[in-house]
Amino acid sequence: MMITIVLVGTGNVAQNLFQAFYNVADIEVKQVIGRNENHLSFAKNKVSINTDFNQIPTADVYILAVSDDAIALVAEKFKNSGGLIVHTSGGTALEVIGNQNRAGVFYPLQTFTKGKLISFDDIPICLEATNKTDLHLLQILGKSLSKTVELLNSEQRRTLHIAAVFVNNFTNYMYTIGEEICAEHMVDFKLLHPLIKETAAKLDDLSPKESQTGPAKRGDQKTLQNHLKFIENKHQRELYTLLSNAIKCKHG
Prior knowledge:
Elements lengths: L2 E6 L3 H11 L4 E7 L14 E3 L10 E4 L6 H6 L7 E4 L15 E6 L16 E5 L2 H14 L3 E3 L2 H31 L8 H9 L6 H4 L3 H4 L2 H10 L3 H17 L2
Parallel strand pairs: 1-2, 1-4, 2-3, 4-5, 5-6, 7-8
Antiparallel strand pairs: 6-7
């Protein structure tokens, strides 16, 4: 069964989805649509590209890999397409697509970085649709890319998205703070890379709570105070204090 898709968007998610689907034998990317032709270069000479929303080809699925704020506006342009219209957002409800007979969500739970293409094999893909037939269609699409395909409603997906902000965005900001502290004192941040990797690897065997270590977990007030005396930056001190207190509270 050949599934035809039209991909809308030119950002990191769109580029990764395009490359993933382009390499699947039973899926045809009929077109990639974006507002700026220069931003469509990743698909040029591979499939049809288009900047005119009045010239939309017929397809089984229209994937809107656009910013959350643009989903409703872009979905409106496909209301007479007859195909299944899906967005790729974790924090946006299915209903944002509008009063469509056929609407869904195809949410790959991963961080996508400009210029970096990654494999979808281990990326969880979270699905939702307004009817069972379309949900089955999305399951076929999802399983063509990933070993992990989950059916989640909008509230469950929003829960995952909020949790993802904590474990990814906030954690990465902590890396930024660590890099700043190292740079201020002429220490190579790369020395922390093995520690960062081992901290994540421990989650294969332990829960985050079980794997917690450090002076706040131990209740080592002397070390905590010494660290606070050393940190000169007010913002860094506030974060250190806030997080240490949270860890102490969690672990008694």
